[in-house]
Specification:
123 residues, alpha+beta
Length: 123
């Protein structure tokens, strides 16, 4: 009598594959969460750089530096300025933009200084 060859995987093989997938997921999921938080803070830094550029344009066109509460109204002329960003400096001094972030793993207060590479402050 001939024995029929069975097709398919054994239970042990399936358990090994599921275990490997679980290990990979346990490693990958936290890394994706960190990448998301890093992207959020870097995007906020890019927005801060755009705010500085808009402030310099306003300064060149109107001859006055952008500062304080008037900054939001003036910047709205050049861009859709997000809320929560505060701008200081100007004229001869570099502009500094500060804001509060909600990204996990980062300090809640961030700062971008004109002509300085943005490095997010981690908690």
């Amino acid at each position: 009598m001939k024995r029929k060859s069975k097709k398919g995987f054994t239970l042990i093989e399936l358990i090994v594959v599921v275990a490997i997938i679980a290990i990979l997921a346990a490693i990958a999921i936290p890394r994706f969460a960190n990448m998301r938080a890093n992207s959020q803070v870097r995007a906020e830094g890019a927005t801060a750089a755009q705010i500085v550029t808009a402030a310099r344009v306003q300064e060149a066109e109107k001859g006055a530096k952008v500062n304080g509460d008037a900054a939001t109204a003036i910047l709205d002329e050049y861009m859709d300025a997000p809320t929560g960003f505060t701008i200081t400096g100007g004229a001869e001094d570099p502009y500094e933009v500060s804001w509060t972030t909600s990204a996990a793993g980062y300090k809640s207060s961030q700062k971008y200084t004109e002509n300085v590479e943005f490095n997010p402050a981690k908690s």
